[in-house]
Write a structure and sequence with these properties.
Blueprint: H1 2-9, E1 12-14, E2 17-18, E3 21-22, E4 26-28, H2 38-46, E5 59-63, E6 66-70, H3 76-92, E7 104-105, E8 120-121, E9 124-125, E10 127-128, E11 131-134, E12 137-140, H4 146-166, H5 173-189, H6 192-195, H7 200-218, H8 227-234, H9 239-253, H10 256-264, E13 270-275, E14 278-282, H11 285-300, H12 327-335, H13 350-355, H14 357-374
Parallel strand pairs: 7-10
Antiparallel strand pairs: 1-4, 2-3, 5-6, 8-9, 11-12, 13-14
C-alpha cells in the first residue's frame, strides 16, 4: 500500500495550457492533484493528529483544511488557555506551516464590553474581526444574519437579472424554473438550517427575490397572478416554508433525548420581589410559574371586578338567532389568517387552517351556527 501511494505522488509534473499555448513542465514537490479522489483522504491523514495536540479544555472544529478552536471565555485565564492551544498548534505545524495572516479571532457575545485578548501564532498577532465567512455562511459577533442575508440576496439578484437578460428566448416554464432553482434559489437556500432569519423584514427581503423570479418564470406581469397561485403552478414552496422544512428534517435526525437534555440545560430565571424596593433573580419553578401568571393576568384581566350587565349595551332589535354564518364567510376568515403568527391555545397552526379552509369550513360553519342558536359556547 505504501508503494502504491508513493507511486501516485512521486515524480509528478504540471504545466499550464492557455488557448493551445503550453508552459514548460514544472516538478511538483508537494501537495496532491486538484480534483482527485485520493487528495482529500490523503490530506485528512496528513492532519489526522491535529486534535491530539489541542488541550482537552479547548474544542476543535475541522472541515477539510478549515480548522477552528473555540471555548467559553469568561476570564483572562480562559484566554490564556486558548492561547496555549494556539502555541501547541504552532509547534505541531513546524513543517506544515500555518498561514497566520489568514487566521482570525471572532468573539461571539452580547456583552457591551467583552473581554478582548491579543492572540498570536508565533510572532504574528492574529487579526480580530466582527464577522467572518465560515463555510459560506457569514458569522457575526452578535449572531445576526443580516450581513449574510444581504450578501446572498445581492448575489441572487445579480444572477436573476443575468437570467432575465440572457434567457429571453427561453419560453419553456420548466426550463426557466430549473435555471432559477439551480442558479438563484440555491444561493438563498444554502445552509438555512443554520442561519434562518427570525426578523420578518429579513424574511421579506429574501422572499421578494422569489416573487420576482416566479413572475419571470411564468412570464406574467405584476398583478396578473397572485404569488400563491404562481407558487401552486410551479409546485414550489415559499422560501420561509422551505427553510422550516429543512430545519424540521435536521431536528428529526437528532435523538429526542439529546434535544431534551440540551433544552433542559438552558437556565431560566425570573425577577422576583425579595424585599421593599428590592428584587432578585430566581430559578425556582414556582416563582417562574407565578411570575408568568402575574404577567398574563395583567394583560387579560381588569382591576375592576364589578359585575357588568351586558344587556344594557345591546341593541334590543338584534338577537343571536338572527345571525347566520355561511361557508364563504368562514373560508374568507380562514384564508386571511396570518401564517407567520404563532398558533392559539388550541395548538392548531394558522397555516393548517388556511390550507384546509375549504374542507373544514362546512363543519365549522355548522358548529358556529348551532352555537349561536343555542346560546352555548362550545367546549374545548
Amino acid at each position: 500500500m505504501h508503494d502504491w501511494f508513493k507511486d501516485y505522488l512521486h515524480q509528478r509534473f504540471q504545466r499550464v495550457v492557455v488557448d493551445g499555448a503550453v508552459s514548460d513542465w514544472v516538478h511538483v514537490t508537494s501537495g496532491v492533484p486538484q480534483g482527485s479522489i485520493l487528495g482529500p483522504m490523503l490530506f485528512v491523514i496528513f492532519i489526522n493528529d491535529l486534535p491530539d495536540v489541542v488541550p482537552d479544555c479547548i474544542s476543535t472544529g475541522l472541515y477539510a483544511d478549515d480548522t477552528k478552536l473555540y471555548r467559553n471565555v469568561s476570564t483572562i485565564g480562559d484566554c490564556k488557555k486558548l492561547q496555549d492551544a494556539l502555541t501547541e498548534l504552532s509547534s505541531w505545524s513546524y513543517q506544515k506551516n500555518f498561514n497566520a495572516s489568514k487566521c482570525k479571532v471572532l468573539s461571539i457575545t452580547r456583552k457591551v464590553n467583552p473581554l478582548h485578548f491579543q492572540y498570536h501564532m508565533d510572532s504574528t498577532k492574529l487579526l480580530r474581526v466582527n464577522e467572518e465567512k465560515d463555510l459560506g455562511v457569514i458569522i457575526t459577533e452578535n449572531l445576526s444574519w443580516e450581513s449574510h442575508l444581504t450578501c446572498i440576496c445581492a448575489k441572487a439578484n445579480k444572477l436573476l437579472s443575468l437570467l432575465k437578460r440572457t434567457c429571453i428566448s427561453i419560453i419553456d416554464s420548466s426550463v426557466r424554473k430549473t435555471l432559477y432553482l439551480t442558479l438563484v434559489r440555491s444561493k438563498l437556500s444554502y445552509a438555512t438550517e443554520v442561519w434562518s432569519p427570525a426578523s420578518s423584514l429579513l424574511k421579506q427581503k429574501a422572499e421578494k427575490i422569489q416573487r420576482r423570479a416566479t413572475r419571470w418564470i411564468l412570464r406574467v406581469k405584476a398583478g396578473e397572478l397572485s404569488y400563491k397561485d404562481r407558487l401552486q403552478q410551479l409546485d414550489t414552496l415559499p422560501l420561509a416554508y422551505d427553510r422550516e422544512f429543512y430545519i424540521a428534517i435536521v431536528f428529526q435526525t437528532i435523538p429526542q433525548d439529546e434535544i431534551k437534555s440540551k433544552v433542559s440545560n438552558i437556565p431560566l430565571k425570573v425577577s422576583v420581589k425579595s424585599g421593599e424596593n428590592q428584587r432578585s433573580y430566581s430559578n425556582n419553578n414556582v416563582d417562574i410559574a407565578n411570575t408568568f401568571n402575574e404577567y398574563f393576568a395583567s394583560i387579560f384581566t381588569h382591576d375592576n371586578n364589578s359585575d357588568h350587565n351586558l344587556g344594557e349595551h345591546l341593541d334590543p332589535e338584534i338577537v343571536l338567532e338572527d345571525i347566520t354564518l355561511t361557508n364563504d364567510e368562514v373560508i374568507t376568515v380562514l384564508t386571511n389568517l396570518n401564517n407567520n403568527k404563532a398558533h392559539g391555545s388550541d395548538g392548531i397552526p394558522a397555516r393548517l387552517l388556511t390550507e384546509t379552509s375549504s374542507q373544514i369550513a362546512p363543519l365549522l360553519c355548522a358548529l358556529f351556527n348551532k352555537s349561536l342558536r343555542c346560546g352555548v359556547f362550545p367546549d374545548d
